[in-house]
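Internal ticket - ligand job 327, tryptophanyl-5'AMP:
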Amino acid sequence: MERLLSGMQPTGVLHLGNLEGALRNWVRLQKDYEMFCCIVDWHALTTMYNRTDEISSSAREVAAEYIAAGLDPEKCSIFLQSHVKEHAELHLLLSMITPLGWLERVPTYKEKRENLGLNEESLSYGLLGYPVLMASDILVYRAQAVPVGKDQVPHLEITREIARRFNFLYGDVFPEPKAIVNESAAVVPGLDGRKMSKSYDNAIYLSDDADTVAKKIMSAFTTETKIRKSDPGIPETCVVCQLRKLYDPEGYQTSWEEDRRGERGCVQNKRELIDIINASLEPLRIKRKELLADPAQLEKYLEDGAERARQVTSETLTIVRKAMNLR
Ligand code: TYM
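stdout (structure tokens):
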């Protein structure tokens, strides 16, 4: 059975971008692959090193959301990155063979640098090394593939480059993992039309109740030039229409055609979308709440997941140390 690894940062609770862009794919893939579903709490430290208490509570919520969305903790291993120390050991070893230039070119690094307004003094070593830690997360399982949203594809490229370099220097140890992207949700738009992201404050969260979802969708961007109901809309650039397509793949076309012809107003469009999204999220909300009400059981899932993960990672590190003559 091929092995897959993927992860999410517990910088907060999950949003529809995480769910549709990645998590739904994990749920689909779990029956055909040996899956490792990580909650990357060390990665969260790159931006939240001064709010560590939030990371550990968010990590438990993310675990509950993984399971509420349909991951079966018996079938796939759900665990915290910091519970499996081999991620850190491999990170250290890979950091020795990763050229700085590769890291400085990574688009997410450049983006974070600009968005967070960081200068040379406040830029941390960990933030620059983020992709090396991510490569370690993947390679420590010798994973063949990684299901992610489109924004993570550059990170996968650098992971493959690091694997190739390691194999060239020390012999064939790592497969070159490929990205598995769900094309219909590769980039889920947020309420303002940019990529849905916690840092843009444009997200709908799995933890939002029905009223919050309604308020958020009522405030979403539509077609800028559509003022009256009879003005034609452009569904391709309207957030509400895009989300409708994602959540109503069979039925969205009629609403798009009416929008294009100026036969439907944005308010109707929004009301319908609110009902569709709330109906889709409701079972997940209920399951999420149940799981969070039993923290001991949740902790048990995480311990079991870490235990299974360590079986693979300790084997990988034995191979790696041998290949590198670290006797
Ligand atoms: P993170 O925590 O930002 O996002 C988790 C997953 O959600 C996807 N995603 C989206 N997909 C579509 N549309 C969106 N608006 C959207 N927003 C987020 C992301 O692509 C991702 O799949 N670096 C990773 C975490 C990580 C990781 C790993 C991933 C660390 N180690 C190893 C895979 C394998 C990150 O920051 O994801």
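Auto-summary: The chain is about 55% helix and 5% strand. The two ends are 31 Å apart (CA to CA).
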